[in-house]
Write a structure and sequence with these properties.
Distance between the termini: 43 Å
Shape: globular
Radius of gyration: 24 Å
CATH topology of the largest domain: Butyryl-CoA Dehydrogenase, subunit A, domain 3
Strand content: 5-15%
CATH class of the largest domain: Mainly Alpha
Low-confidence stretches: 1-27, 370-375
Oligomer: single chain
Helix content: 55-70%
Number of strands: 6
């Protein structure tokens, strides 16, 4: 065999390695996304710059101001919270806050800039953006801790709390970087060929086509929706301190308390991230799997399910509550109510429903000889 024949054979084998089983070629050439997007590049760059600026100022300015009778006022910021946790020997919590609220926002902005301006394959960019999308919401851990403090100090005489500019700046910074990640993922995904739909032309619910996962998904999705409702309405904390009103707070009453105090933007934030979007994600999981849809609708619902899931933050709020169990007792004495455990259980069932949904879809694809993860 000649050298040219050997080279050609190796090249053909290399090309075959980068083809899907449905014969659609995977894009493996490196390119710069910014050069392909036109004016979208300017928009994304401006949003990233604004997010970076907001992140920097959010570290300088306090999140909130907490006051207690005979103790004066104290300003809380991300650096202050980290210092407080470390001084109390709560090293694991300090590390979590450093990782999620201090370090990761800047790491994410750097990676988004890399994705936009450095040569990468489209699939490599897609994997990077998908990972950043799923991790982005955890940066709001400190924001939810600040909102919990605002709620517990609401309508009290001997303690008080006021939000400061830092929490607004940080919330805007994280949400803008999350939006940019979604936008870049959408723009990059347009250049990746869609795979063949295993149920094309058949109006068959995809969970039903998956076999036994259908029967498991039925009770799980019902349990997920029911537990989410209970997680929203059941109180998780009740104040138990002399001189303070013994109010009990759930997610719903926390939203109402913030709105009543005039902090409507924070009330809307909690309502969207903790109630509306998690419930919408479960409804979309139900629709994509149990409702007979054509190829376009099934792909669209599945795509939006992933987006909504990335912005659903009941799990982040649950972790904030657990962290507050150690920090909050120094500010306000409270008792733990059953709602806290229901929130933890609801998050677990929520993730179980999402996992089974993913497995059911993957199972249908695997039966059709496919190895990819999305519709």
């Amino acid at each position: 065999m000649s050298h040219e024949d050997c080279s050609a054979g190796c090249l053909n084998k290399g090309i075959d390695l980068f083809r899907r089983k449905d014969k659609n070629p995977v894009v493996v050439s490196r390119n710069v996304l910014a050069k392909q997007l036109g004016w979208w590049t300017v928009l994304c760059t401006l949003i990233l710059a604004a997010s970076l600026t907001s992140n920097i100022f959010a570290l300088i300015y306090p999140f909130l101001e907490f006051s207690a009778a005979f103790q004066g006022k104290e300003a809380y910021s991300i650096p202050h919270t980290i210092q407080l946790m470390w001084s109390m020997d709560l090293y694991a919590i300090a590390v979590l806050i450093v990782a999620f609220s201090l370090t990761f926002p800047f790491v994410k902005l750097i990676l988004l800039t890399v994705v936009l301006w450095l040569p990468m394959t489209q699939l490599g960019r897609q994997k990077t953006l998908s990972t950043l999308r799923q991790l982005g919401r955890w940066s709001l851990l400190d924001v939810f801790i600040a909102l919990i403090i605002l709620v517990l100090a609401d309508d009290q005489i001997f303690i008080g709390a006021k939000p400061k500019i830092g929490v607004t700046l940080f919330l805007a910074a994280i949400c803008s970087s999350m939006f940019t990640c979604e936008l870049l993922e959408y723009l990059n995904h347009r250049g990746i060929p869609h795979q063949h739909d295993p149920l094309e032309g058949r109006h068959v619910p995809i969970y039903w086509a998956s076999g036994w996962p259908f029967w498991l998904m039925v009770p799980v999705i019902v349990a997920a929706i029911g537990s989410l409702v209970y997680a929203v309405v059941l109180p998780f904390f009740q104040i138990d301190q002399f001189g303070l009103h013994d109010y009990a707070y759930s997610v719903l009453t926390s939203i109402q308390a913030l709105d009543k105090s005039g902090w409507t933007s924070f009330a809307v934030t909690m309502l969207a991230f903790l109630v509306i979007l998690p419930m919408l994600r479960l409804v979309l999981l139900l629709i994509v799997g149990f409702v007979p849809l054509n190829r376009f609708l099934r792909r669209t619902v599945h795509h939006w399910s992933g987006i909504v899931g990335a912005w659903s933050m009941l799990d982040v709020f649950g972790l904030a509550l657990l962290l507050f169990l150690t920090e909050g007792a120094n500010l306000v004495k409270f008792n733990i109510n059953s709602g806290l455990y229901v929130i933890i259980g609801s998050v677990a069932v929520y993730y179980l429903a999402a996992t089974i949904s993913f497995y059911a879809i993957h199972r249908v694809m695997k039966r059709s000889g496919m190895e990819v993860k999305t519709l």
